[in-house]
Amino acid sequence: MVCDESKALQRKKVCVIGAGMAGLASARELRREGHDVTVLEQNADVGGQWLYDPRGGGADDPLGAAEPVKVHSSLYASLRVISARENMGFTDFHFAPKAGRDGRRFPGHGEVQLYLKDFCDAFGLMEAVRLNTRVLRVAMAVAPTRQWMVRSVHEGTEEEEEEVFDAVVVANGHYSQPRLPSIQGMEAWRGRQIHSHSYRVPEPFRGDVVVVVGCGASGKDIAMEVRGVAKEVHLVAKSMEEVTPGLAKVLAKHSANLHLQLHVERLCEDGRVVFGGGGSGVLADTIIYCTGYNYSFPFLDTAGAVTVEDNRVGPLFEHVFPPSLAPSLSFVGIPIKVFAPWFFEAQAKWVAQVLSGRRTLPPEQEMMRSVEEYYRAREIAGVPKKYIHDVCLSETMPTYMDEFGSKYCDFPRVERWHHELVVSLFANMNDNLETFRDDYHDSDSIRKGVEEWHLSAQQTQAAPAAKKMSLGLSRTSTVVCAHPS
C-alpha cells in the first residue's frame, strides 16, 4: 500500500451511516484526517447496537422478518459483555471503570453505551452526529462525478432531505436483521415464535414450555435466564460438538427443567416440536430462535455493484472497498469476531487516508483479483459462503489483523497479553458457563498487562479532551473486544 506524505491532502465531504462503535471510530479517524464528516444515526442517541431499546421487535413482527427491522438493537435487559473490559476500548481511550458506574470486568450493556457517549464527548464527535435521522436511500449522483446522493428522513418531523457527498462510509452494524432457519411446519405452527432480536426479559414466558433454537452465546444466555420462570426449556444444539464442559455442568445442575435437544426436525400444527436424534418431541408454547443475523443494507443502491449473497457482502477488497466503487464507497465493521474497536479503527484510518490521498488503492482489476483469490481459498478450505467475513475461523487471525494494520495504515500491533486474555476468557467460559464473568484467575503476564493498562487509563483520563483532539494522542496501547451475540 503506497503512502505519499509529500502529496497535498484532499478534504472530502463524507457521510457516515450509523453512530455505533464502527461509525464513531470512522467519524473520529475521518475528522483526524481533515475531512468534513456528517454521521447519520436513526436512534435518539449514539451507541448503535449498544443502545438498549425495551420495545423488542413488537407484537406485529416478533420474528423480525420485515426488512428493515423497526427496532435496531438486539440487546436483552440482562446482557453482560463476554469480553473483559480491558479488551474493550479505543486504542487511546480505555474502557476504564468510573466511579458510580458499573465497574465489573464484564459490565452490563448500559456501561458500554455510556462509554461510547464518553468517547463522543472526549473527541467532540457529537457536533458531527445527526440523531433521529434514518437513511432512506444512498445512490450514485448523476455522472460523471463519482459522488453520492443520500436521502434521509428526520424521525418525528418526517421531513426528508437530500444531500450530495464525496464519499459514504457504511457502518450500520450487522446484529439487527434476524436470520431465520428453514424448518418444516414453521408457518402453520400454532405457538408463539420469536427471534432473539425481540427477546428482552424472561417474564412473558412464565409457565411456558420453551424451545430455544441455537447454542451460541445468546442462546445459552437466554435458555439459562428463561429457565428461572418457564416450566421447561429445551435448548437445541446442531450437534454434541456444541456441548462444552461448562454447558454440560449447567444441564446437570438444572436438569429438572433444562434439557438438551439436537436439531429441530419439524413443527406440527398441534404444537409439537419434533427433534432429531430419535427424539419424540415436546408440546411447546414458545420457540425462541437464536440463529444469528443477516447483513442488511436496504437503503443502498449500487446498481448491483455490491450484493449480499448467502450473507456474503461483496465484492469487497479486504472487507472494506468495493473495487468498482472505491474509494468513494466503503464499509467499516463488516468482519465478525474480530478485535473491536481496534479493527474498526484500523479500517477507518485506512479509509480516511485513502480519501485524503495520503494512501492509494491498487487498480480496480487487482483488487477484484484479490477478492476472487480470497473467495477461492476459503472455498478450498471448506468455509461456507455465509462465513466469508469470519476472519476468526482462521488460526492465523491475530497475524492477519496485525498485518492488516501494519500494511494499510501503520497501526500498532495488539500487545500479546491481550491475546492471552482472550484465550483465557474463552477457556474459562467453556469450562464455567454460569460463573466465568465473575470468577476468573489471571496469569502473571495478564496481571502485569492489566496493571499497566489501568495506569495508562488513568493518564489518559487526566489529559484534557481538547488536548486529545488537537494532538491526536499516540496509540501506545491496543485493546480488543468481542461483539455482542
TrEMBL record:
Broad enzyme group: oxidoreductase
SUPFAM superfamilies named in the record: FAD/NAD(P)-binding domain
GO-annotated molecular function: flavin adenine dinucleotide binding; monooxygenase activity; N,N-dimethylaniline monooxygenase activity; NADP binding
InterPro entries: FAD/NAD-bd_sf, Flavin_mOase, Flavin_mOase-like, FMO-like
Cofactor: FAD
Keywords for the protein's UniProt record, in alphabetical order: FAD, Flavoprotein, Monooxygenase, NADP, Oxidoreductase
Annotated EC: 1.-.-.-
Gene3D superfamilies referenced in this protein's UniProt entry, alphabetically: FAD/NAD(P)-binding domain
Organism domain of life: Eukaryota
PANTHER family cross-referenced by the UniProt entry: DIMETHYLANILINE MONOOXYGENASE (PTHR23023)
Biological role stated in the UniProt entry: Catalyzes the conversion of methylthioalkyl glucosinolates of any chain length into methylsulfinylalkyl glucosinolates.
Similarity-based family: Belongs to the FMO family.
Name used for this protein in its record: Flavin-containing monooxygenase
Species this chain originates from: Triticum aestivum
Gene designation per UniProt: LOC123136577
